[in-house]
Amino acid sequence: MKHYTKHPKHFVAVDCVILGYDEGELCLLLYPRGFEPSKGAWSLMGGFVQDGESSDNAAKRVLKQTIGLEDIFMQQVAAFANPDRDPEARVISLAYYALVRMDEHDKACVRENGAHWWPISELPEMIFDHGKMVEQALVKLQQEAGYRLIGKELLADKFTLLQLRKLYEAIFQREFDPGNFRKKILSLDVLERLNEKDLSESKKGAFYYTCKNEVTERGLDRIVKV
Amino acid sequence: MKHYTKHPKHFVAVDCVILGYDEGELCLLLYPRGFEPSKGAWSLMGGFVQDGESSDNAAKRVLKQTIGLEDIFMQQVAAFANPDRDPEARVISLAYYALVRMDEHDKACVRENGAHWWPISELPEMIFDHGKMVEQALVKLQQEAGYRLIGKELLADKFTLLQLRKLYEAIFQREFDPGNFRKKILSLDVLERLNEKDLSESKKGAFYYTCKNEVTERGLDRIVKV
DNA sequence: TCAAAAGTGTTTACTATACACCCATGT
DNA sequence: ACATGGGTGTATAGTAAACACTTTTGA
What we know:
Chain A is 26% helix and 28% strand. Chain A is α+β, with helices and mostly antiparallel strands. Strand 1 (9-22) of chain A pairs antiparallel with strand 1 (9-22) of chain B.
């Protein structure tokens, strides 16, 4: 310890960019900050890293507390460590993003915090550097979705190719040709077709698919060209 | 301050993956740790984030101290925050990678620390999780080099296309077809040909090129297919 | 019968890759 | 003369993108 003690210690927080998907649009969960500074302003869900707790676990804990879900897809975005990013005290924050199914989360839990789902296209002003965190999280999500099929993280267990395509269109903010998208996705051989159709979107009915529950295949092929 | 004080504070460090290029191979600068724990074991250059100092600046400071260079290309890799990653005390570390020209750095400065350049293909065991930091830094470097021309960061101000190709071969650990590589790079229109030839590598002599000093163009085109 | 999505097939354009080939020149 | 890297051109293959067309069925 003797070699470390001359150095200062800092508060270390995690801030979670919690993303869901609903009605063709990505949504972000924000809540009105409950204490000063910036009390009442829109903020990411966050919490402080405790002793003996990894930042990954701190992020999981925050997620559990705010939406009541565990075993969620989650990834580190970056560290934000400007000394004056929080006007009240120096807090170094590690940003994470999480993908949750909006229908599965604990709504009571969310309501309790006064939290609100915002469509990604019309986000409000956020406190501190939370806006930047969201920006960088969305870039990371695109990178992830470009190399690995993001499906079961944001959709239901079974989904149609239309639903998957709309999700990708929301993530990449552009349209994909229905035929080409179908061929590309199916060529990856990571989906399994069920003997069940969704009749809500078309008269003909579209087959449901599920993700093959093999190892979450990585780097199999590019999905979206950059 | 009243809302924060109930939370613990932590040591926050930066660890720098300092990469250079020499004789067709990427090299990593390591030094024998000067204090316990793990005194004498090979370690990345690191330092603690001070009060009022951003982590970016802490990383710059470490770089200045260890190789005597400023204004170096540098990027955050990730936060490493397992509570027991450092057996002596809890230290949350932010990993950065830096690209330096090996001929330009202050050799006295480096020697003073007992530091040593290791070719990337034969790295020694490192302390703690430094090996993982290096791994992730190399992935980040590949991503960066795949979208943006990495040249002046690791080579001299002027370089031949052979030198640039060898650099890319070192970064991606695979060979590139000389003709195709040349065409691809020149099509990016980010290099300027000088009226000067390097005669050391071939009888015919190869033109030197420099990076056009426009805005460091981003996302112009993929350089390396993934 | 029409609209709307499902699903399949075809055509075109582009680009990565492989590789042939001439050039210049020191040894 | 020949070996070596410099530099250019071309042929092939694979893939992204555009789009035509057929299927199904409720309204």
